[in-house]
Amino acid sequence: MFFLEQCNRAVMDLLILKFNNAKSGGKPDAVEYAYYDFDGANYDLVNPDGDRTKLMLSVDLPYYKELQSHGADAFLRKEYEGYIQSQAKSGFSVSLVFDLTKLPQDTDRLAEKASLLKRNCFASVFHKYFDLQARMEKGENVDQSRAVIHYRPYETLYIKASNDRVTAIFSTLFKDGNDSVLGKVFLQEFCETRKVGQTAPQILYRYREPPAELSDCRDALVGENVGYVTFVLLPRHTKPQNRDTTIDLLHIFRDYLHYHIKCSKASLHTRLRAKTADFLRVLNRAKPYTRELKTISGRTFTIDPSLEHQNNKPE
Prior knowledge:
This protein is α+β, with helices and mostly antiparallel strands. The protein has helices spanning 9-23, 64-68, 72-79, 107-115, 117-137, 177-196, 235-238, 240-251, 253-286, 305-311, and strands at 32-36, 42-46, 54-60, 94-99, 147-152, 155-161, 166-173, 202-207, 226-233, 291-294, 300-303. The strands form 3 sheets. The chain has a 5-stranded antiparallel β-sheet. Strands 1-2-3-4 form a 4-stranded antiparallel β-sheet, with no helix packed on it.
């Protein structure tokens, strides 16, 4: 298994380059870069108002308004204190500004944290429901409504807290019918792994129809290529010392699933092509052929090697 990075590698590498250049006394240059992530996220890195001593990193998330309703703004203000802007760049959801003349000592850590901007936007809703579960466990009366985040076109994340667990349900759309079969096999391995590691969360997979938890959700998709993956997170997964790891793995799960499905298909295709090439070599060796010989006078004639072999058989 290969674990995908939580950060945006292109953003982090460029920020490290610019920060190191500023720390070494290099002359700041003009910056204007745009990055596009696979899930529709759009990154933008520029000099605000043409000031080369400053860098503005902005991200546009199509579903950010849904995250705002679950405290994304407050969470990001705390996470990026001193860098987040009260007003994001036009057309973007969140903007951070870094002054190259006032950088902290550990600039690599700052660059990594900035590259986790999308992850931290997503983390706000998880923190909210993890905290709600802890309060409900103590007997407090809190809002028990469900969070619905349309994190991709036709794909949705549902989160709900109860007094003993937090349930996170991912709906995912398989564009290829074969992907749903591979996805089912892949997710069955998660269930098998849980038999070895009892501390892992329970994972349930449902194909074509939503699980019972979404019976009252009218916009839940139903269809041949629709799958639902349910994570049952217990208090040991959501307590403060473990929740960051839980959020990291949940945030990247959809990409992780589809990445490994595509890798499995590529591996199968490679093995099929290699086996086909072996069969072709066998067939080529089995083809009848003739051998050309020359006489002393220069005349040429051909013979069938199979006949020649038969004539040389001992009587």
